[in-house]
Design brief:
about 900 residues, Jelly Rolls, Leucine-rich repeat, LRR (right-handed beta-alpha superhelix), binds 2-acetamido-2-deoxy-beta-D-glucopyranose, repeat, ATP binding, protein serine/threonine kinase activity, serine/threonine-protein kinase, Ser-Thr/Tyr_kinase_cat_dom
């Protein structure tokens, strides 16, 4: 698998056009950083004449150290005298700005340990260029200078150079250089592949200094390679020219020296042999080998220098090759070795006609590095960085937020498209000590689906920017100090069921837009404007009257108690008798007792749940439920109106749900209408939201433990609310996610099998039960379906659906009572979510937040089709994911 190119000289262009020769180059665009140098200092490096400055402006982590005096010598370049090291964090990154997007750059990092930490220990760490792996650096000798170089195309207008701690010691760095490159140089480098330098050697120099800028205008570092036994040096003082289209522009100073085998005679030309070894960390080597040549001797008539180049005995040059006198030329190509090959033997062997031995002026070997990861969308990156700096977030948030995936920032989730940049989809900054106002930068995270800012100290009003986030499905602002009203855009999305909005436990926040008056919505500038108008009024009209107006205006603050602080009315047995008209109409019955319908004095209908008072355990269960109900408030949870707890009665007075339970509707109880698909999916979404609130919106979080259609109640608008918290468990956030229990509780058919076996309870157990309910909503079947044959076993609805769907036919499982009036894609999506929820292992089940997002998609699919279903054939039949 070799790709071969012979650099041809275009003689005409050589003689007619010398402008391609880059004798002079300025150092415009060079960035030369001495890592570990104290802030604001810089110096001129005598060997390169370049100015090196402190790395302070490029990074805000790490600590500076001087190397140990034992390793300081008079010839040591000043970049190596100090280092910056990174004790903290997985990824520490330098950010160099003002690159040209799509421009080609050479980036070089150097490392000399010099026992800076006094530990005298080797270290191995990874380097990343942008979001892509670059190289693994292995440093064992304190005196050794390691140079890593990569040539790449900048995907965005900045580059991050990251040192990644892989657990094998503290990463450190001595210097960092960035050099812009002409596009025509190193044509193998493009946006999908970079070149990582393995070797760059200048053959045959008489002194041992590295050639770099200004001798090489591109400031590559050419290491000397001479004094090899069996090799003789050849040099010239004449300038070596580059052709106009030279893809390497090897500098004259490098090409002016070469090596050739010793003792070669016209009768006995011998071969030049050398080899390189694979980098032990390079798992899949793929090389670009470049051999630089120029004929330095003046050949007489009859003299000929011609040779073949082979690598591991395979022909590398396409044909026998002769170098051009005093012009730069190169033989280069890809070399993809056989698996396991670690040594690459290069042989330059004179052909039979040649009277002179082969020569070699310089060699470069690169690994070809595929560019596999793309940096996160740049608008997302600036937004999240603005958020990070606004709230001084102290997390391991360095480098690209999403890429590479393994190092994505903690607290956020990203979507990774096959092509295109990753986007930030979920951000959780719950309990992160955020203070101040909510920054508008959140509004620039346009792909955001969930945002959790709960339990911080955020103050001020809720900005309108959230309603501009098209995909936002969950916004949790619980437990802050927010004030003012909720922007109408947000309220609308929430009311339309597109957004789960949590704003509980914010003392000064109006829970509902209508309760807040204009004053609060006003921006500071309009307040000032109004204040000025009033001042004018003060001047113009009677002082007393105007004072009255101002005080009235500014005095109307929005004081809305959050329901948490409300006291619940306590009823007596006599009150309950009155409310229920002496327990006249029973609307439900269970192991706990009986539920009666009632009516408060103001006419509100209520459900009165009378508890048998039997055992201490039952009383305790009652108290658990009552206590939970006083703490949880969500439109999809049945709310508490009051209670009775005295020697005569134990009862809860609850919101009345006129349409009964989901179970009544699924069972087709007389008087219950058959639900349409649209109604069903809405009920599923409502229930999911209620459950999600229990899991994530409550502190302590709550596991319901008995999710089933009987406990999902419907009001007159068929809005679903979860009820019956008698066996629910609240866990303080310090507890482990899994909580050991003695006996599994719940209802047969809905109990999470994993919980049943392992007796370890988590939110995922509710997700399982919810999945069963969702399957019932789709199929209209009971949770346990009796076998049809005489011998057949009863099966769970999830097995029943799985079996049928494996034959690819969704229509065979959907509740026939819907008479085919549903969008097939919407049902497929819902069935897929339900099956994921009923996976045997909890870790494979989605969270309720995921379920909400997926169910919203189902609603959108149904809505899109519902608009023009009349007569239009259904699309996507038998679509299977
Ligand atoms: C660098 O210089 C700037 C202004 O000249 C100064 O504000 C800053 O504090 C200095 N930083 C350090 C680390 O000395
Ligand atoms: C590293 O982390 C520790 C503990 O969090 C902190 O005390 C120290 O200052 C950090 N060091 C640097 C260089 O940031
Ligand atoms: C390094 O050495 C210089 C003097 O040579 C001194 O000024 C500087 O403070 C030292 N830096 C550190 C981090 O020890
Ligand atoms: C790192 O380099 C040292 C010295 O060259 C070598 O002995 C060691 O095996 C290398 N480590 C790895 C993991 O390759
Ligand atoms: C980059 O170059 C390689 C071969 O040299 C080629 O296969 C690939 O398509 C190029 N990619 C782009 C984006 O041009
Ligand atoms: C050519 O030279 C090499 C090394 O200098 C020697 O080993 C070899 O025998 C010579 N061959 C002939 C044919 O003289
Ligand atoms: C390279 O040369 C060495 C001896 O110089 C030999 O042992 C090795 O097998 C050669 N490798 C290949 C792949 O030809
Ligand atoms: C050099 O390559 C040519 C063409 O591939 C071949 O004919 C010739 O034998 C080779 N010469 C040597 C010395 O290997
Ligand atoms: C050797 O040179 C002769 C005359 O210059 C030419 O005809 C012949 O093809 C050459 N042979 C090789 C192997 O290059
Ligand atoms: C809480 C409060 O003051 N509400 C008032 C807000 O303004 C409307 C009229 O615009 C009144 O009807 C509310 O009573």
């Amino acid at each position: 698998m070799r790709e071969m190119v012979l650099l041809c000289l275009f003689l005409a262009s050589i003689f007619l056009n010398n402008t391609g020769v880059t004798g002079q180059a300025d150092d415009a665009g060079f960035v030369s950083i001495d890592c570990g140098l104290p802030g604001n200092s810089s110096y001129k490096d005598t060997s390169s004449t370049l100015t090196y400055s402190s790395d302070d402006p490029f990074i805000d982590t790490g600590t500076n150290h001087n190397i140990s005096a034992a390793y300081i010598t008079s010839i040591l370049s000043p970049h190596y005298l100090n280092v910056r090291s990174f004790d903290n964090g997985t990824r520490n990154c330098y950010t160099i700005k003002s690159l040209v997007t799509g421009g080609k750059y050479l980036l070089r990092a150097t490392f000399m340990y010099g026992n800076y930490d006094g530990l005298n220990k080797g270290v191995i760490f990874d380097l990343h260029v942008g979001v892509n792996y670059w190289k693994t650096v292995n440093i064992s000798d304190p005196e050794e200078i390691t140079i890593s170089e990569v040539i790449f195309v900048a995907p965005v207008d900045y580059i991050q150079v990251c040192l990644v701690n892989t657990g094998l010691g503290t990463p450190f760095i001595s210097s960092l250089d960035l050099r812009p490159m002409k596009k025509s140089l190193y044509p193998h480098v493009n946006s999908s592949q970079s070149l990582v330098l393995a070797h760059r050697l200048n053959a045959g120099p008489t002194d041992t200094t590295i050639i770099r800028y200004p001798d090489d205008p591109h400031d590559r570092m050419w290491k000397p390679w001479s004094n090899v036994p069996y090799w003789a040096e050849i040099t010239t003082s004449q300038h070596i020219q580059n052709t106009q289209n030279d893809p390497f522009e090897a500098p004259s100073a490098v090409l002016q020296t070469a090596v050739t085998p010793v003792n070669a005679t016209p009768a006995n030309t011998s071969a030049l042999k050398f080899f390189w070894l694979a980098d032990p960390f390079d798992k899949d080597p793929d090389y670009l080998a470049t051999f630089h040549f120029s004929e330095l001797q003046t050949l007489t008539n009859g003299q000929k220098r011609e040779f073949n180049i082979t690598i591991n005995d395979a022909m590398f040059s396409p044909k026998p090759y002769s170098p051009y006198p005093l012009y730069a030329d190169a033989i280069y190509g890809r070399y993809k070795p056989f698996p396991g090959m670690r040594q690459y033997n290069v042989t330059l062997k004179a052909s039979s006609n040649s009277t002179l031995s082969p020569i070699l002026n310089a060699v470069e070997v690169f690994s070809v590095l595929p560019v596999s990861d793309i940096p996160t969308d740049s608008v997302d990156v600036s937004a999240i960085n603005a958020i990070k700096s606004k709230y001084q977030i102290k997390r391991d948030w360095y480098g690209d937020p999403c890429a590479p995936k393994t190092y994505a920032w903690d607290g956020l989730n990203c979507s990774y498209a096959v092509s295109g940049s990753p986007r930030i989809t979920d951000l959780s900054l719950a309990s992160s000590g955020l203070t101040g106002e909510i920054t508008n930068a959140f509004g620039n995270l346009k792909a955001l689906q969930t945002l959790n800012l709960s339990h911080n100290n955020l103050a001020g009003s809720i900005p309108d920017v959230f309603s501009e986030l098209p995909l936002l499905a969950l916004l949790d602002l619980t437990g802050n100090k927010l004030s003012g009203s909720i922007p109408s855009g947000l309220l609308k999305k929430s009311n339309d069921g597109l957004l789960t909005l949590r704003v509980g436990d914010n003392a000064d926040l109006c829970n509902d837009g209508t309760e807040c008056n204009q004053t609060k919505k006003m921006s500071n500038s309009s307040k000032i404007a109004i204040a000025i108008i009033f001042l004018i009024i003060v001047v113009l009209i009677i002082a007393a009257a105007s004072i009255f107006i101002i005080s009235k205006f500014t005095g109307s603050t929005c004081v809305v108690e959050t329901s948490i602080q409300l006291e619940y009315p306590q009823f007596t047995y006599r009150d309950l008798e009155q409310i229920t008209d002496t327990f006249k109409q029973e609307i439900g019955r269970g192991g706990f007792g009986i539920v009666y319908i009632g009516r408060l004095v103001d006419g509100t209908q209520v459900a009165v749940k009378m508890q048998h008072r039997r055992s201490t355990q039952e009383v305790n269960n009652f108290i658990v439920e009552a206590q939970l109900l006083t703490k949880i408030h969500h439109r999809n949870l049945v709310s508490l109106i009051g209670y009775c707890n005295d020697e005569n009665c134990l009862a809860l007075v609850l919101e009345y749900m006129s349409e009964g339970s989901l179970q009544d509707h699924l069972k087709g109880k007389p008087g219950s209408s058959c639900l349409t698909w649209k109604e069903r999916i809405r009920i599923a979404l409502d229930s999911a939201k209620g459950l999600e609130y229990l899991h994530k919106g409550c502190n302590p979080r709550i596991i319901h433990q008995d999710i089933k259609p009987h406990n999902i109640l419907l009001n007159e608008r068929l809005e679903a609310k979860i009820a019956d918290f008698g066996v629910s468990k609240a866990f303080s956030s310090n507890d482990d996610t899994h909580v050991s229990m003695k006996d599994p509780v719940g209802t047969y058919g809905y109990i999470d099998p994993e919980y049943y076996v392992k007796r370890k309870l988590s939110e995922k157990s509710d997700v399982y039960s919810f999945g069963v309910v969702l399957l019932q909503i789709i199929t209209g079947q009971p949770a346990i379906i009796q076998g049809t044959g005489p011998e057949s076993e009863p099966v769970n609805v999830s097995q029943w659906v799985r079996q049928r769907l494996s034959r690819g036919n969704i229509d065979s499982v959907v509740d026939a009572r819907m008479q085919g009036d549903y969008d097939i894609n919407s049902v497929w999506n819902a069935a897929n979510v339900a099956l994921e929820c009923t996976e045997m292992s909890g870790v494979h089940r989605p969270t309720m937040a995921d379920v909400i997002v997926r169910l919203q998609e189902c609603i959108e699919l149904e809505a899109a089709v519902g608009r023009n279903r009349n007569g239009v054939s259904r699309n996507g039949v038998n679509k299977k994911e």
